[in-house]
Each structure stands twice: as structure tokens, then as C-alpha cells.
Amino acid sequence: MKPAFLLIGTLLLFIVLGLIHVSQGQASTGFFRFWQEVWHDEQQMNFLLHSRMPRFVIGCLTGAALAIAGMLLQTMTKNPLASASTLGIHAGAYFFVVCFTIFFPAIGHAFPLLVTLAGGFTAAFCVTFLVGKSLDPVRIALTGLIITMLFSSLTSALQLLFANEVAGLFLWGSGTLMQLDWGGVTFAAPWIIILVFIGLLISHRFDFLLLGDDVAIGLGQNITITKAAGWLIAILLTSITVSVVGPIGFVGIIAPHLVRLMGFTKHRSMIIGNIIVGASLLITADILVRIISETSELPVGAMTAIIGAPWLIYLALKMRKQTRASGSALEGKVRIVRYKPFYFMIVLVTLLLIVISLSFGGTSFTRLIELPQEMMHNSYVWDFRVPRVLVSFLIGMLMAGSGLLMQTVLRNPLADTSVLGISSGASVFAMLFLLVFQQAPISFVAVGAFIGAFLTMGMILVISARSGFQPMILILIGIAISAVGSAIIQILLVRANLYAGLALTWLAGSTYGTSWNDFIIIGVASFIILPIIILFASTFDILSFDDEVSIGLGVKASQMRLLMIILAVALTAISVAVVGTIGFIGLLAPHIARQLVGPKLIRLLPLSLMIGGILLLSADFLGRFLLAPKEVPSGIIVSLIGAPYLLYLLKKINSVKVK
Hints:
By secondary structure, the protein is mainly alpha-helical. It has 31 helices and no strands. The longest helix has 36 residues, at 42-77.
């Protein structure tokens, strides 16, 4: 009887929340006065029927749909962290909407559901294909995060290059329940009701999946059809909501867990519970959004992320016992035997890239023989182009070093500070300084990034201290921190209006405007941090094994892991402070190096640094050259270069682990 009483209590709470929600609005006179006037004031009645009720109903439908989709995805993947947002389905759907808005606006307008459905299926296919048969919750969550990063990077590139075409998508892209009429409800309601009804009809099939695949097959169930139906219903529900209200995350994680905590174990009762709990959660988030900003519209998707992130951290800490032994030594092959010729070739390639980059002036190339004279006598070349080229190479080195440390400490070749949420925290504070202190010197942005990176690091370390800074716990907390950071950035972008283009350029990562002062700062930082890494290289190598092995060899795993994290964050903070958020280099460079010289850190470090420098230097040149005289931020170029390789890497890693 306890689950039934809890469900009745939740239903009563939902009714109260509904009454509060529909009484809110820019023209509202307050809760009690509104309900006193609504029956006698025609204007208030019109507000209720044609503005507030559509918003309330679409909120209920969306919350219920996302909650049920999350429940089914968690059942299909046996992953308590699965939802449309953590599996990248939201990011894929949003990317397709942006693509069609820019390149095929007629199709996107005529068939919005098909567009979002195609994006959702693409992202879901990528995750399931890359994970393979593995159902490890953390691995699925990490793969979903990487897929989300890929789609988000591509979306940011399109938003920056086609700012006018997608100007109206900023608020929608962050998730909003704002409705001008009943059109969204009449479109979404039939689909959602039919899909929920189908889910109820076949709910008993999902119950068998909870017993395990072998048991379900032994009981005569066709689990392939059941799983296909579950995936189809979940992705359809997600796509319908995205096409109407945009991507709204975390409802699909929180609601199913709350329903299970209430005592419901059968899918039929869980579907009913998720309808009420999901709707209540989203309505609550929308109420909070409108309380915070009564005069302007803020994205409700950002509020659900802020509410949901602590819940995700709670789940991560709850899983710490089962993840304590997770992780394995990083693997790599020694393909390079003759180091001197190889490094001589690397140095030649680097010098060639530097010369080519220095010789390009934005519209044409300078002849090689004239380059020294131009550098000596052209103040623009010496003051802007030369430091930009050198800073690009050094920043690439720092990012690669940071990624190498994070991959070692987390025992995962897909880890770096962007996965841990450090880059997101640095971006939030840099954005705050960029938008709040618009007349202040640009150095304020660097200060903000540095403060944000270390505050985020401190928050993560405090939360994960009891788990001994376990690698998988750090990753899960990083996912939550990244979600909160992205939510805050979305709010800032929506509020920024005229400054959104400037903010997007910085967020995409750009080496434009770097100076000799930046070069000096980076040089000093490298001179301090890199020797420390070299000094402890052999000890850091031991940390790439399980904690039992490290402790058995006399290494204080927690303390050394903390030192590595601090060094990695320092490198990231410097990088973000100078050029903004550029991802993927910290992921790609160490992995490429590991496949050439093996996993030993003392050999990995110099090659990783060189490859990182080459990657960002190449991206900076291509960003200036491809659409000259218009520049493409280096971060976007790096994403376009790194995405195909990263997809291959994900598949390869998960395939090896399954075997």
C-alpha cells in the first residue's frame, strides 16, 4: 500500500504545482488574486486559456514523455544513468534541427518530427554501435558524453558560421516550454498518448528484461523485438518533445529513480508513476525559472540540468563500491624503435608548419625568401602573427599534457579535463567576466577562466574525496559538472543577446588576438609544470594500474592522483584563459603517441606534447586559410579533424574490452 499512498501524494502535489504554474506570468497579479479575477476578467481568462494552459499542458506531456523514455532506456541498457541526454540523443536531434534550419529550411519546417527523429536515431546508433555488447553503466555514460561533445561541437560550428539563420534557435536549443498557442500541444499530444498506450500494452515484456537476457529467453521471450520496441518508443518520445520544446535533460534520469524509490517495480505501474513524477518535475523547474526571471524568458532545460546534476552526483557516489576496482592499465604498442630519426622528422614537420603559418597573411602567402625581412620590418607580423603561431603551438602542447595526465589518473584513454568538467567550469566564469564586465580589459576573461577551473576542481575533489578520487567516480561527477556548466552558459547566451556572437567565438576556442604577453605566461607555466611531471613520471606510470597494484608497490595512490589532477587542471586553466575552450587535443594527442611509443609516460610525454602542438598549429592555419579573409575558430577545426578519429577510437576501445 505504501507505493499507492506515495503516488496519491505525488498526484496531489502535482495538482498544487499546476495551480501555481498557470497563475504565473508577466501579466499575473499573484496567485490568490489571479484565481479571484479569472472568472470575472475576460483578459485573465484569455491569458489562462490561450497562453498559460498550453504551456502547462505541453510541460506535462513533455515531462511524462521524457520520464518514460528515460525509464525504457535504463531498462534496455541496464544502466541507471541512461537517458536521452546522457546517451547523446538530445544532442543529435538538436544538431539535425540546426542543419536543416540552415541548409534545408523548407524540409525542417514541414517535417520537424522526422528531422529530430533522424538525429535521435543517429546518436543512439552511434552510442550502441560504439559500446557494442558491453553494458557497463560507466562506459555507456562516457560514450554518450563523447557523442554529445561531438554533436555539440558541430552544432556550435554551424551556429557560429550561420549566426543569422539560427538566431531564433538559442532559446529553443536550451529547452523552453513557451507556447504561443495550442499548436504544439495538438501536434505532440496524439503521438505521446499513443506511444504511452503502446508502452502500457507491452509493459509486461519489459519486466522479463529485468530478470536478465538468458532468463528472459528461457521463458520464451523474444528479447530482440522487445528491446527494439523499447528503443523505438523511447527515441520517438524524445524526438517529439525536442521538436516542440527543444532538448530538456535530466528529467529522464531523476523521474525513473524517484518512481523506483517509491516502491514500483513493474513497468506498467512505473509508467503511470513516471507520468505523474515526470510532469511534476518539469512543471516545478518551469515554476522556478519564472520565479528567477519574471520579466524575460529563460530556458527550462537549464534549470532541469541544475536540479538534476546533484542527483547524478548522488548516483555516482552510490555506485562507488561497484566501481572501486574498475579501470585497467592503458595499452599501447611500441612501433617506433629508432627515436632520433623519428624526432628529427617531427621537428622538421613542426618547423615547416610554423613557416607556412607565418607566411600566410590572411589573404595571400609571403614568398619564403621575403619572410625574414617582413618579420623584422612589419610590425603587424611581429606583434600579432608571430606570437599567434608560437602561442598556438605551446597551447597545443599544454592541452596534450593535460590530457595525458587525466588519461593516466583515470585509467581511460578517452579522458581529459573537458570530460571531467574543468573546461566547462572555466568557460562559465570566463563567460561571466566577458558578459558582465563588457568594458573591462580582455585580461579579465583570462582571470575568470583561471578562477573557474580551480573552483570546479575544488568542488570535484571535495565531492569525490571519500571515494579516494576513484577514476569512474570522477568521470561521473565530471558529467554532472559539465551539465551544470553548459546550463549556465545557455542562460548567459540567451540573456546576452547582442553579445552572443562574441561569446560563441570564445567558447569555440580561438587563437585570434594572442600576444607576446600570452607567450611569456605560457612559457613560464611550462617551465614550472613540465619538470614536475618528468620528475614523477615513473610514479605516475604505476598509477595507470589498479589501486591494489599501486599500493603494493609503495605508491600513495590518492595523494599522487591528487597531484596529477592539480597539474592537469593548471595546464587546462592556462589554456582556457588564453584561447578559450578547445577540446579533443587532450584526447587525441596522447592516444596517437601511445600507439607509436607505448604506454610509458617518460616516452609518451615529449611525443604527446609535440603532436598536440602540431594539431593546434595546423588548426590555427586552416582556420585562417580555408575561408580567408574570414576566420574559423581553431576549436571548430580541431573538432572537425578529431571527430572521425575519436569515433574510430571509441569503437576500437570498446571492442577490445568486450573481447
